[in-house]
Fold this protein.
Amino acid sequence: MISVDRAPRRGPPGLAPPPPDWLDDISLSIDKIEAGQVLHRVHRSWLDPIFFGPGRGVPPTNRFDSAGGRFVVLYAGLTLRRALAEPQLRNPQRLMVGMADIVERSASGLVADRPLRVARLYGPGLQTMGTDNAISTGPYEPCGLWSDALWAHRDQPDGLAYQSRHHSSEMCLALFKRADFQLKRADFQLLPKETRSLSSMFDEGCSSARDLSEIRFAARQVARRQCCRRRFSIRSFGRTPLVGPWRGGFLPGWGRHRLAGDGLDTHINQAFADAAH
């Protein structure tokens, strides 16, 4: 019997191949995102949703951060479902969702002032550009090299599209910071139902920096009061998952994942349903 330690390795190594030497000689597979199309981010409520990282003096942290530190990157989803899955469903075997993971976060929609062209690092675009889907699911080390190569490519894409590791039917975007386009915030909603007063504050038309700072301050206060007190479990009730305290039944009004108003609860339902089944 061959021990596990001595067994020959099966299958591929898990690392995506680095960019090929011939990459700059081909035309990239490109997807176009129309100006005004909403891109989605879920973020800490007191942070600006328009953030190109990793930040000054910070080494590469996320998947497509520049390996050489030549530029900064903003991550977004084409759907709110994808944006919700990224921070909430990173551990597929987790049965509880921390209260802080919901209370502290908001969903923002961003729009660009011109059409965006992104390299297609999924589907047929993988073979066209000489890689495989480990670029979306494997270790991060080669991904920064791909980001650098695409940023410098003669086709000058504005970023790249890739498959979500946590929700494989959804596409993610990594946008490069370029001088000839700007992003602006199209909408802003707090996630949890317990902050409905804050949501109504925004619904009444708060759009100024002062009002946004008030929302951020209030969201921090809610998070501090509640994030350490309760944890919530994903449970199945027929085909609809329920969220409630780990002990003692369910909070009033928190039955069928009604965590936020204005349609957000529908997206949260679906994101958690996909993870629970």
Notes: Residues 243 and 257 are 6 Å apart (CA to CA). DSSP finds eight helices and eleven strands in the chain. The two ends are 37 Å apart (CA to CA). Residues 193-210, 226-266 have pLDDT under 50 and may be disordered.
